[in-house]
């Protein structure tokens, strides 16, 4: 597994956890990581990650019509 490390300055009102969820949510929605990988970035289980995604404005559901058809 590849590991990427970076430093960002402290942001007012944004905790490390918030930053991890936002990064993981964006990567998941852009289909760069799987749900499991996104959950791993945050340090949460898949279930816990799914439960908090809405709080941060992310959807678990794909916007792809093809994915929707496959799900139905």
Could you give the order of the helices and strands? Answer: HHHH
- Give the strand tally: 0
Largest sheet: none
Number of helices: 4
Radius of gyration from CA coordinates = 13 Å
How much of the residues is beta strand, in percent? under 5%
Low-confidence stretches: none
Query: How much helix, percentage-wise, in residues?
Result: 40-55%
What is the general shape? globular
Distance between the termini: 33 Å
The SS-based structural class is mainly alpha
Mean pLDDT: 85
Which structural traits does this protein have?
72 residues; mainly alpha; 4 helices; globular
Describe the structure concisely.
It contains four helices and no strands.
What order do the helices and strands come in, and which of them pair?
Layout: H1 16-29, H2 35-42, H3 46-53, H4 65-71
Description of the molecule:
With 72 residues, this protein is mostly helical. The protein contains four helices and no strands. The protein is globular.
């Amino acid at each position: 597994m590849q590991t990427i490390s970076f430093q960002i300055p402290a942001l007012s009102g944004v905790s490390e956890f918030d930053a991890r969820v936002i990064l993981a949510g964006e990567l998941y929605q852009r289909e760069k990581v799987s749900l499991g990988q996104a959950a791993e970035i945050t340090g949460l289980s898949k279930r816990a990650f799914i439960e908090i995604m809405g709080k941060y404005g992310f959807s678990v559901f794909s916007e792809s019509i093809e994915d929707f058809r496959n799900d139905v």
